[in-house]
Amino acid sequence: MPLIYADLVWLLNFCFDAMLLWLAAIMLKRRVRLWRLMLAALFGSLLVLLVFTPFAYMTSHFVTKLVISFFIVWICFGFHRFRFFVENVLAFYFATFMMGGGMVAFHFLLQSEITPYSSGWLTHSTSISWLFIVIMFPILWMLSKVQMGTIREKKLRFEHVIDVRVTCFGQTVCLKGLIDSGNQLRDPFTNTPVMIVELQPFAHIFPQAVLQMIQKRTYTDDIPNEWVSRIRFVPYRAVGVEQQLLVAMKPDDVQWLDGKQWISVKKVLVGFYPSSLSADGEYNCIVHPHMVMSQAS
């Protein structure tokens, strides 16, 4: 008969419950007091001790597990309103399923015990050692925490990405624009806000002389006359880079999508950047916040 150390089993369950609650708090961006989190984990881990009592049959019942999980979430996060409580419960279950499913997946990935049958199916041993759980749980927890931060960052970025249309010489180019509050670039003479766009989507519109001027950031005399009155040179400074000149142009029209309505921007310059603005292609222009704020106000 195998020897079971009840204190170690309890300690592991206490630590796992605490880390699952912490992960749920991170997912929902909840501020949780440490004593509440520890108390909730302690309450949840006490269920393990019932296994060694005459009430062991109750621990495997679905209703018991459900009620215990509700109490764990209530102790940790409190009860402010019903929707708040349901969100916490679902996040706790999601964290539990994610961690449990991850450990089972890694177990099947790493194990080598396979038994062939005449029917052609393969079966694997499903026993997972405590040592495997102790090692893999913190690793999966850290991976989940990092991934949650990545998802939150992307979500925040996409919430500030809008559709933009720029029309130059009768030709319209559709772009994805990032609303960047740090972009305060303006034409020093007219105080006109400047939105920065990648040059590549406009390459088919511009004459070769204009393209070379944008790439070299120096004025040339061989550009067409109809372009001369539209060209501006705007000084700008990036982090770690000395002050440079950005070639900008007065467009025919610039519009951005507000829900289902296109909003026209009356006063704006379009500055052309020769390289890519986003490493993963999520946007190809940086929208000046004044373009959006002026409409909102």
Automatic annotation (TrEMBL):
<feature type="transmembrane region" description="Helical">
    <location>
        <begin position="6"/>
        <end position="25"/>
    </location>
</feature>
<feature type="active site">
    <location>
        <position position="180"/>
    </location>
</feature>
<dbReference type="GO" id="GO:0004190">
    <property type="term" value="F:aspartic-type endopeptidase activity"/>
</dbReference>
<dbReference type="Pfam" id="PF03419">
    <property type="entry name" value="Peptidase_U4"/>
</dbReference>
<dbReference type="InterPro" id="IPR005081">
    <property type="entry name" value="SpoIIGA"/>
</dbReference>
<comment type="subunit">
    <text>Self-associates. Interacts with SigE. Interacts with SpoIIR.</text>
</comment>
<feature type="transmembrane region" description="Helical">
    <location>
        <begin position="89"/>
        <end position="109"/>
    </location>
</feature>
<comment type="similarity">
    <text>Belongs to the peptidase U4 family.</text>
</comment>
<dbReference type="GO" id="GO:0030436">
    <property type="term" value="P:asexual sporulation"/>
</dbReference>
<dbReference type="GO" id="GO:0005886">
    <property type="term" value="C:plasma membrane"/>
</dbReference>
<keyword id="KW-0645">Protease</keyword>
<keyword id="KW-0472">Membrane</keyword>
<keyword id="KW-0749">Sporulation</keyword>
<keyword id="KW-1133">Transmembrane helix</keyword>
<feature type="transmembrane region" description="Helical">
    <location>
        <begin position="37"/>
        <end position="57"/>
    </location>
</feature>
<keyword id="KW-0378">Hydrolase</keyword>
<protein>
    <recommendedName>
        <fullName>Sporulation sigma-E factor-processing peptidase</fullName>
        <ecNumber>3.4.23.-</ecNumber>
    </recommendedName>
</protein>
<feature type="transmembrane region" description="Helical">
    <location>
        <begin position="121"/>
        <end position="143"/>
    </location>
</feature>
<dbReference type="GO" id="GO:0030435">
    <property type="term" value="P:sporulation resulting in formation of a cellular spore"/>
</dbReference>
<keyword id="KW-0812">Transmembrane</keyword>
<keyword id="KW-1003">Cell membrane</keyword>
<feature type="transmembrane region" description="Helical">
    <location>
        <begin position="63"/>
        <end position="82"/>
    </location>
</feature>
<dbReference type="GO" id="GO:0006508">
    <property type="term" value="P:proteolysis"/>
</dbReference>
<comment type="function">
    <text>Probable aspartic protease that is responsible for the proteolytic cleavage of the RNA polymerase sigma E factor (SigE/spoIIGB) to yield the active peptide in the mother cell during sporulation. Responds to a signal from the forespore that is triggered by the extracellular signal protein SpoIIR.</text>
</comment>
<keyword id="KW-0064">Aspartyl protease</keyword>
